[in-house]
Amino acid sequence: MTSVNSAAHILDKQLKNRIRRYGPMTIAEYMNAAAEFYYSQGDVFGVGGDFTTAPEISQAFGEMIGLWSAVTWQAMGMPKPCQLVECGPGRGTLMSDALRAARQVPGFLESVEIYLIERSNALKTIQGETLKGHKTVWHSSISDCPDGPIILIANEFLDALPVRQFEKTKDGWRERQVNIDKTEQFCFTLRTTLSEDFNAPINANIGDIFEVSPAVTEFIGMVSARIVRHGGAALFIDYGHKASALGDTVQAVKGHKFHHILDSVGTADITAHIDFEAVIRAARSVGANIFGPIEQGIWLKRLGISVRGALLAKDQAPSVATELESGIRRLIEPNAMGALFKVVAIVHPGLPSPEGFSQSGSYE
To answer: What phi and psi, each to the nearest 5 degrees, are found at residue 191?
Structure first.
């Protein structure tokens, strides 16, 4: 821990020196620098880390995604090879559970090539241990994966991509930035010049904040264009709002508690809510079909997670059964993760409506 804090102190000094030399940085630049350091630490997940993701709550989550992937592969015509790609794989838990469940579908495991999109060497080591026995290839970007049909999975990946924030002033929109105050601490400030090339797509009052994430829309556009060219589907699960909305959603979590994003840079997980309306626009702009967003709880129940949970709990000791059932409820109940998290699927125009989604498409 001491070495992590020492390294974080160095990052703090580096960013402040950068601001002194070049002026305030955008919130996106700050998030990028913080995230690169944060994930280089290694295992930040679970009870002993800073936050817990759905795969760590119940094995049934990854199993549902594995079966979804296999059924999607069948709808694609069972191509061989087919790339099975996960972005931001954490400990590798989701992929491990998905592959175990997908064994039930003949030919699937023999046809897929497993790729993990990960930049942290520390996390690659953990993922390799989790997925021991599977041939796995790591890349730092989806663009490094070879051409061909693809099934891409991304759970709580988009929310970690940086956002830019703009605030409405009496003169117009100005970008929010990170600066240094008189006490040598990070602080928020507004760019001195107007952001004349920016205008929020919704009405706003003075003081309102609107977020955009070029990183998210560029990534969605790149994945969607690839799917249109080579075939396949992508599944994104994250928290956010269905329609573009005003508000500051950038937040940090450390030790399972909220943490100010400007404190102890690089030692907390910084994320922002996803604007799913912007995701839909990015996918459709290159000719891909998109389904959702649909609430995670509804989607998981349509896939049969409640039945799977009951099977897992059967014949278990009462305490184990209770824990298993509690995990499923946490994933699907609206007052837990069921409503906050949304699911979207981007698919090739020639594919049918994917499992768990209605044929109506967006805004279920």
So the answer is: -60, 140
Contacts of 14 (CB under 8 A, 6+ apart): none
CA distances to 50, 92, 121, 197, 260 from 43, rounded to whole Å, are: 9, 11, 11, 40, 21
| Cβ density class 265-279: b for 16+ within 10 Å, e for less | bbbbbbbbbbbbbbb
353: in domain:
no
Range of the domain at 93: 2-347
Is 142 inside any structural domain?
yes
What letter would DSSP give residue 353?
A: P
Mean pLDDT of the chain: 93
CATH code for the domain of 304? 3.40.50.12710
Please give the model's pTM, rounded to 2 decimal places.
0.93
Q: What is the per-residue pLDDT for 49?
A: 66
Specify whether the CB–CB gap between 134 and 69 falls below 8 A.
Answer: no
Calculate the alpha carbon distances from 199 to 64, 113, 165 in Å: 40, 43, 12
Q: What phi and psi, each to the nearest 5 degrees, are found at residue 149?
A: -60, 145
- Total number of domains in the chain: 1
Cβ distance 330 to 210 under 8 Å? no
Task: Confirm whether 150 is domain-assigned.
Answer: yes
